[in-house]
């Protein structure tokens, strides 16, 4: 593991998940180029993570398929998978509606952080992580077109039922630092499996 984030994460994971990550391949230059064509402002810290491990949600790495929860959010010990470059690019081509269009008459029941522009298509935000049930409950985005109160590159957490979109970090780098300083709290799910 080249990145500090992944190198430190290993000590919090069970043996099997450690081995999966150590067998994983990073994204190639061509894959990173494909990502940057769609998201030219992709943070270098995310590029480096993907160069280390190109996705952890049922991603093919040589002969192995890996499935390891490697990210968290402000939801405490709730874990997420890192999407591969291919999954990120596919999302870009799929999700074109805005938050406003998605909810329209139900907007009164949806919490949207004032830092988020609800009129920007969802695919213009880089969705880099889905939660443990494949994003059905929560996903994480890098937002490049915030409202005036927000910052370019802020990290947004979507959660379902009740639906909300919340800024959880000013940048991707800040987001990773929060996870490190929180001692990778989301890895608690692996401890629960063995109790």
From TrEMBL:
Organism encoding this protein: Lysinibacillus capsici
Protein name, entry field: SMI1 / KNR4 family
InterPro entries named in the record: Knr4/Smi1-like_dom, Knr4/Smi1-like_sf
Coiled coil: none
Residues annotated as transmembrane: none
Pfam families recorded: SMI1_KNR4
Domain Knr4/Smi1-like: from-to ranges: 26-178
